[in-house]
């Protein structure tokens, strides 16, 4: 018996027959033809004659990237082996220099923070609309971007997230028109939307409206392996040579051929079979939703719950558990421990489940039975009181904060550690992020106010995880 903690646990997880609703999208290889999913280690090679070079592609990698560009409707496509994170960092560094401002949706992923630090750019935040029915953020509106651009004409670019973790898609067509009318490039973090282009039943991809930079995590919704992503470039506003240079600087000099191979496989499978597979998936989800509506206590996120000019990706299942009298965190724990279901993430009142073309009718039948059993458990009302507290905070934009220093200035400043409850008025030195979904509550350089302290404390008490908050609720602040 080998002493292999990671290997042994993962093999155990595989054998538990868990109903999987988390990334990566191949769902333990079930979404990939088995002849393409075996002997993976034999794909693990290096740059030798014939295998090409990711950073200077002239052969098979160049051909694969050109095929991807055609499939996703982009002018140029780059393979990413360090995930969408390095794509976001590259994008920011390619459009901004130190001291320049960039307009950013406040619901952006934490990878934006590292991009700001490395580039030295300064954020100007725009805020998403708030959905009180589910206690979540919706998309960034075209009107808020127009207003922010008029107020801040000096910004170098605009960066938004679409779709968000909950599958909510903002009005990308009008957003692109507005951003381009101001002569600015638009960066779209489409990490959760690599599948959108393959079905007319889904919201359009940002590529279809020629956003300047579109970054997609293939491993989230396609049959690709973790860290596999695409970076698409459109139009003439982006210096493509700067993109190449920054990607070569930020990505590993020993890129994984396994990751690149499955980026190629995901593209081919979706191009050939994606439309039919997604049609079948959406049909199964629709049937599942109809069945679930008969069980009291659940509310399923759909377009009817959203504001105008906002649509929902039907392949992203969001189940509100407030009607059961429990938090999403507690529901997630019970589903895994007692009912053999693992969701992608939970927040204080919702479960988020990633569905992909790997999922079948049996997947949803099992899920329905598990959720039926969960609904029959009696819970007390303590959670409801905590949830109302968080709702009141969320409804007043807990992410809005006063920026005392730029992210770079906070990064290089001297720091000290303090307990979060004693940090009122202090300047945050790190990134404080409930994870998942990975959206920072506090950026480096922002002042910690009472609403942030209360919000973070409530999330932890309800069982959520907050990155940047250590043991005994210790955080880093600027000295």
Automatic annotation (TrEMBL):
Gene3D superfamilies: Orn/Lys/Arg decarboxylase, C-terminal domain, Type I PLP-dependent aspartate aminotransferase-like (Major domain). Keywords: Decarboxylase, Lyase, Pyridoxal phosphate. Transmembrane segments: none annotated. Its cofactor is pyridoxal 5'-phosphate. Residues 5-296 form the Orn/Lys/Arg decarboxylases family 1 pyridoxal-P attachment site domain. Residues 402-463 form the Orn/Lys/Arg decarboxylase C-terminal domain. It comes from the Bacteria. One of its GO terms (molecular function) is carboxy-lyase activity. InterPro entries: Orn/Lys/Arg_deCO2ase_major_dom, Orn_Lys_Arg_decarboxylase-I, Prn/Lys/Arg_de-COase_C, PyrdxlP-dep_Trfase, PyrdxlP-dep_Trfase_major. Belongs to the Orn/Lys/Arg decarboxylase class-I family. This is Orn/Lys/Arg decarboxylase major region.
